[in-house]
Amino acid sequence: MTATATTLLVAKPELEEEHAEVIRATLPLVGANVNEITQVFYRNLFSNHPSLIRDLFNRGNQAQGAQQRALAASIATFATHLVDPSLPNPVDLLSRIGHKHASLGVTEESYPVVHENLFAAIVEVLGADVVTEPVATAWDRVYWLMANTLIAFEKGLYDEVNVAPGDVFRKARVVGRVDDTDDVVAFVVESSDAEKPLPGFRPGQYVSVGVVLADGARQLRQYSLIGTPEPGHLSFAVRRVDAAGDAPAGEVSSFLHNNVQVGDEIDITVPFGDLTIDTEATTPLVLISAGIGDTPMVGILDYLAANSSPRHTVVLHADRSPSTHPLRTDMHALVTSLPNASLDVWYETEPGDARSGLLDISQVELPEGADVYICGGNGFLQAVRAQLQTAGVAEDKVHFELFSPNDWLV
After folding, report:
1. pTM over cut 0.85
2. What is the dihedral of CA 59, 63, 69, 74, to 10 degrees?
3. Quick check: 397 and 371 in contact, CB under 8 A?
4. pLDDT at 407 over 50
5. 206 given a catalytic annotation
6. β-pairing, 285-290 with 371-376?
7. Is 111 a catalytic residue?
8. Which of these, 321, 292, 313, lies nearest to 401 by C-alpha position?
9. From 42, 111, 206, 373, the catalytic residue
């Protein structure tokens, strides 16, 4: 997170006391019904604006309800922080949302559309007798405090990369494709316009990749960047998401695996994302990942190796087996190239020289005062977060990236 962005988010908006009293009184009721409210909201939003579900929102997450739960949790969290003087502004929450919005090209014109459909859903679920004028006014105030904070932050993100708000998409040509594992492919792309090279990035950032599917829908997904962050080329790895239980197969990951080859063209955004290291700092680093969650960590390691960084760096990774470990060779080579780095890996099967079973932080020594970066599935992140708390790692030293919507980390 840059200093400019931090400044924009740290200052906590003030909610007038008459509105705060209403929010405190109604927050339990809204919280108890917030999942239904968000379901109705998205139903109305997509009915009124069908292009959003085709061309912007992740259809897989919508089908499973993941995005609805994440929206519900974020609104409830922001309201809770507003009315509790002891709580700071939820900077990490707002930063994650803002970077994701910027990577999708969201602009301030979207917020009135969300407002209209969200408040119609609140009235539909709770009833007009409950949503009186004072209640509607108070929650309207909460919404616009959050929206205006995000609008300003997102404008700052656009300014930092020298683009107009929303103008984040570029045409890119695939110049390299490597089948890394059975279900992971790494792509290298460059700008289709030689006079407008793709920008550099901060280690740990991601891009949105857009493809047009068989039904004509343009779907977007985010992929962490790997390789050195100089302008010109961008590299990212994609794990194919297969159908499992009620979860559908990944539309974009499957399309990229099955259809995109060297010479093909895709849509790609300029980089965003706040799981970035302070490149001026000298504090130790702990990079913890599972599965395809190691991609931002490899991006960070690429940067450290390119700069022969002397920082004490501890890398911890968990996977099913060596054959499913994405970018395994790269990770080992990068750690070996650093003068003060170590790597511990846990495999559930075929561990060989690695550790066996699930990642266990108690089996390794963490450097004092380290900044800790974590990326993986929701269950993995929750487990690691609990282990770090047990180990006495301060909350403000722990940084997360999520590859799916969540309703627990906010």
Report:
1. yes
2. 10
3. yes
4. no
5. no
6. parallel
7. yes
8. 292
9. 111
User: Which domains are assigned to the chain?
Assistant: 3-160 (1.10.490.10), 169-269 (2.40.30.10), 285-402 (3.40.50.80)
Over residues 118-171, the pLDDT tens digits come to 999 999 999 999 999 999 999 999 999 999 999 999 999 999 999 999 999 999
244: tokens are: 């499992």
pLDDT of residue 91: 86
Average pLDDT, integer, range 353-382: 95
Q: Provide the phi-psi class of 75: left if phi over 0, else alpha when psi is between -120 and 50, else beta.
A: alpha
pLDDT in tens, 56-69: 665 555 544 456 66
> Among residues 42, 143, 154, 251, which one is catalytic?
154
